[in-house]
Design brief:
This protein is of the alpha/beta class. Helix content is 41%, strand content 18%. The C terminus is likely disordered.
């Protein structure tokens, strides 16, 4: 496998940029169609990202295009490569899976581009693919090793039983998970997620990522799950999963997390169920970093959808460094301003500029696609450098990377 991409292959890969711009999505859809003919490969992926909306094929099309455009200097793609490696570790992608992807990608290029995909072009893309695959395989090997060797760590899928379930709002329920072997668990980094292999009767195996919503404690994890309309996994968890239900869980993963010792003020900004990683960060700050100036800004529809509000207020009341502000988009008559929420309406860029330290804080964001698209862009346009804007996204973040 190549240690670098030859000059001839780089020239040929760059020459395919116009074709990728025109047909990239068609290529990635054809690629996944080829891959998913193999049930073993199909079951590695979160199929909810491959439906009619096609968020994963779009994300991959953009990633392939970015790779082709930056083939001479891949440094700008380092963050994206790390994100992919973390996702692969969560999904338990292994070196033996990569040849299937190579065959599917090259086959899809040939299917879509036809005679334009000459043997020389396909050879160049094969070389480029395996160069990047080697980078990912090496990084993933390192991540797997660290997770397996850490105290409480493991490799592969581990059985966890639901110990408690708590209804947090009309649409969000929390599940406290403890390993069935009774041994410790690795202390996650606040903000990371767990990947679940769900075996639901009548369904093919499902893979889902859920952010950990509790501070690390070495014994348990908590996830807080929103019931999604037509959501097979979230519906099953809400309706069928009870204390004693056993779930298969991969080790914590993700490059979105709070540093061990923040050197600047922290602004946690979330919308809806995006509060889940923020709760892990907020509990950690309250327990271990009470002197860190922290502003938690959360927006939700109204009191019926607001999860963990009382818990957040209690944390803020006990720790002088924490300030919490809640926006209800459309408060109900029973929602009391000053008790249940602080402001009616949506969080705005102007409000953030007036009430948060744009010139010095690190911003951590999580929420739905429109929420993140708005605030990643707004903060950037307000002068906050990308090095101080961190986000987690439920699904492929193609549009955010473009922003």
């Amino acid at each position: 496998m190549p240690k670098t991409v030859s000059e001839r292959s780089r020239v040929l890969i760059k020459a395919t940029v116009p074709a990728l711009e025109a047909h990239g999505l068609e290529i990635t859809r054809a690629m996944y169609a080829r891959m998913f003919q193999n049930e073993m490969i199909r079951d590695l992926f979160n199929q909810s990202h491959h439906g009619d909306a096609g968020s994963q094929p779009k994300a991959l099309a953009n990633a392939i295009l970015a790779y082709a455009k930056n083939i001479d200097d891949l440094v700008p793609l380092a963050a994206a490569v790390e994100r992919i490696a973390q996702k692969h570790v969560g999904l338990q992608i292994l070196p033996e899976h990569y040849p299937y992807v190579a065959d599917a990608l090259l086959g899809a290029i040939k299917d879509v581009l036809g005679e334009a995909a000459t043997d020389e072009i396909l050879a160049a893309w094969g070389e480029g693919y395996w160069f990047l695959a080697d980078i990912l395989i090496a990084r993933e090997k390192m991540l797997y090793g660290k997770l397996a060797s850490a105290e409480g760590g493991w490799q592969g899928w581990r059985s966890f039983a639901i110990e408690e379930r708590t209804k947090e709002s009309e649409i969000i329920t929390s599940f406290l998970l403890r390993p069935t072997d009774g041994r410790p668990v690795i202390c996650h980094r606040p903000g990371q997620y767990l990947t679940f292999w769900l075996e639901i009767p009548g369904q093919a195996p499902l893979k889902r990522n859920y952010s950990i919503s509790s501070a690390p404690n070495g014994e348990t994890y908590r996830i807080s799950v929103k019931r999604e309309p037509m959501g097979t996994a979230s519906g099953w968890l809400h309706d069928q999963a009870r204390p004693g239900t056993v779930l298969k869980v991969a080790p914590p993963a993700g490059e979105f997390f709070l540093p061990e010792h923040p050197d600047r003020p922290v602004v946690l900004l979330s919308g809806g169920v995006g509060l889940t990683p923020m709760m892990s960060m907020l509990e950690t700050i309250a327990a271990r970093l009470p002197e860190t100036r922290t502003l938690y800004v959360h927006g939700t529809r109204d009191g019926s959808t607001h999860a963990m509000g009382a818990h957040v207020r209690a944390l803020a009341a006990r720790h002088r460094g924490i300030e919490a502000t809640t926006f209800f988009e459309q408060p109900r008559t029973e929602d009391v301003q000053g008790r249940d929420y602080d402001h009616a309406g949506l969080i705005t860029g102007d409000w953030l500029a007036e009430h948060t330290p744009l010139d010095e804080a690190h911003y951590y964001l999580c929420g739905p696609r429109p929420f993140l698209r708005n605030f990643v862009s707004t903060l950037s346009q307000s002068g906050v450098p990308g090095t101080r804007i961190h986000y987690e996204f439920f699904g492929p973040a193609d549009e955010l990377l473009a922003a």
